[in-house]
């Protein structure tokens, strides 16, 4: 998007300057290909007032960029280049085909239409003020204006290995400490690990508890985040238990604050409310009513208490959640020994209601950059002019997107920030050339 808007500005000014895009990977926009599980939620069409509430860092800094290229303008831009779009629940925009490759192809075609030169397998080793860009194979490129749009550290297999952060720091810019965001949070006992490292690789094997929960998807729940025993945030929506841990839309929303707290040495827990629509008193009454119905049912006459408990839980939650729920809540079953060979099983209905309203998970770690959606932190925005994206430290240098200390929620917000800041950087980099009016 930066390359396109730089070229568009030059063409409109009648200037024959060349815009060159140096791409580290064999093909451009590898990360875009995997966004939205390959469907590519490329923007969110909320207006600024609603959109900005989802920007977790430096919302004021990106305001000018957003107004220069708002989300509806991004939709119009893609449609103008022949890519039909659809807007789904939550104001999320996708290519109508639901193929991320259409987004990539449109971006590449748009650049080529204006003469942008895309050089692949061009890994940059260093940048010298001036600007001389030296590749790892020894080739050099010289330019009057330079835009760094390398992303952060997330999904390094797509090429995002923090190169831009290193170059910016070498050129004198300040770096806000980075950490993974929009990532899976790992509850205690979910993985087979005794490692004290907070970063728990996604490939770490699941424990028996993790296996019992993995694959479960829950809708319309309330998830609350507690740090050092104090609730700091709460979200309503959907969560997923995966091979990484607890994630999904609501898990991701809370992950930024959770990871930051963990990194700072704080105790972190999540509290899951499976029945947010009713209070504990109402739920307790409902649980007791359901239990009475089960006891009266002739089919339950010769069924043991533990099996009746499973039938009860099946009326209160998805069946595939029951093993994990019972494993983490042993208090819902009480064994009363009446003699050497006589044991009475009691189902604690009040305990079941309490557990449904407050299922607590102690969080011991998180999945790192290998599968985190975005990088929080980055090059300090204090070193850049919000209205142009130009460096205050190195004139002629522009940064945009995730390499900067800007990040947002899941739902198309991060790609929109990348497109908006990229467009503004491209526009101003080209406008600042001496021969452009």
Keywords:
single chain, 437 residues, alpha+beta, FAD/NAD(P)-binding domain, 24% strand, elongated
CATH topology of the largest domain: FAD/NAD(P)-binding domain
**How much of the residues is beta strand, in percent?**
15-25%
The profile of the biggest β sheet is: 6 strands, antiparallel
Topology, number of strands:
22
- The domain count comes to 2
Overall residue-averaged pLDDT value: 95
The largest sheet has its strands arranged as: 12-19-16-13-14-15
CATH superfamily of the largest domain: FAD/NAD(P)-binding domain
- The dominant shape is elongated
User: Helix coverage percent of residues?
Assistant: 25-40%
CATH class annotation of the largest domain: Alpha Beta
Q: Tell me the Rg in angstroms.
A: 26 Å
- Kindly, what is the distance between the CA atoms of the first and last residues, rounded to a whole number of angstroms? 22 Å
Structure description:
The protein has 437 residues and is α+β, with helices and mostly antiparallel strands. The protein has two domains: 2-180 and 371-431, FAD/NAD(P)-binding domain (3-Layer(bba) Sandwich); 185-367, no CATH class. Helices cover 33% and strands 24% of the residues. A six-stranded antiparallel sheet has the order 12-19-16-13-14-15. It has a three-stranded antiparallel sheet with strand order 2-5-4. Strands 7-8-9 form a three-stranded antiparallel sheet, with no helix packed on it. Strand 14 and strand 15 (246-247) form a beta hairpin. Helix 4 (59-68) crosses helix 14 (413-431), helix 10 (280-296) packs across helix 11 and helix 10 (280-296) crosses helix 13 (349-357). It is elongated and about 95 Å long. The mean pLDDT is 95.
